[in-house]
Specification:
The protein has about 375 residues and is of the alpha+beta class. It has a domain at about 5-145 and about 270-295 and about 325-345. Helix content is about 40%, strand content about 10%. It is built from eleven helices and six strands. The chain has helices at about 70-85, 100-110, 160-175, 185-200, 205-220, 220-230, 235-240, 250-260, 295-300, 310-320, 345-370, and strands at about 5, 120-125, 130-135, 145-150, 300, 330-335. α5 runs parallel beside α6. The radius of gyration is 24 Å and the shape is globular.
Length: about 375
Amino acid sequence: MQKVIVGRRTPRLGGGYHRDGGTQVGQGRAKRQNRRSALRVYRTGFLNQPLDIIPAAPYMSSCNVDEFFTEDRYRYLLECATHYATLSGNSFEAPFGKSIGNRVCMLYHRFFATIPSGFKLNIERHEERIQWIIYHEHDWENHTFYWMPVGYIEKLSGKMKRIALAFTRQLIKKNGLCRFDSIFDAEYYFDIFGDCIESYDMEADEKEKAFDLIDSYVNGAIGKFLSDICVHDKTDVSAALDGFRSGNKKEDALKDCFLKGLPFISGENCIMSYDYDPYSERDEDGCCDYEPVALERIIRYVYEQDDFFTNELMDMVNQELRESYSLQPTSFMILTPESKLFEPGDYPERFSDWFMDMIELLKDLRDEHAD
């Protein structure tokens, strides 16, 4: 596992996610600022076990880093940094210092100065090797739940229902979205929901409806549907859409949405592969004071957007974010002496734009059905 050594910035502190289309908190794209969002709210990683941060000189002498950094480890960092700087058309002089710790600190700053704007740099430990991690935080609509409701599929019929089911299954699998009942917050709530509901100031009939709903999630129709939506599906969605002729505006809108989403159920990209926490600060047991809200809890599927259970999960996330921060999609690359240039691409930005458009469409279709 990796441990951040240098290059860590102060994490984004949580402030809560919004559920409606209110003013966005935090930084998002300018074109999204006035966008009506389906669910606005706050949002484990491959590289998430940091060492103590090495302070910059002249405070290096107060750190016992020389016991950890050997000459070989320093030389490896220098080789990787020199190679990458040369690859990007830059150069720097190897630092000289009284200790290896001082040289590592100066090397970090000299190498970081050659990194293009928008990229950041960490030094992390992977097993017994020290490695550079170059990373880029993607433009992402913070303080937003990317929670895709899938219950609408049950209200469809015929060929469109089969297409929607196949598309959703492939979207979930391709992008690594976790099974709904395997994320710990859902499991935890299922264990405690009885005590929670009994403690709420609710009318007797409301409590009964809440118990029935949770029972459907755990033992009934909703739970069965959410399990069925994760099965493997080999349907050629593109061909099915080409041959589909709809008879109403709702199906036309869904077809257009699925056509635009075809790039996200094919290719090599996966949104969960961008789950990297550059701010993690853990102890030797892998624990930290402020566990971030993982990407799998920010981008997920739910049965409905605003039923009793979904609202409870949202409250749990918002409570955690009062003391922590949320992850956002981040591209990263471990540098080696043979590395190529880091090219993060724009998959998360494109995914975000389309995914939020889809959630908006499903919300509008649900509202039309309710009317």
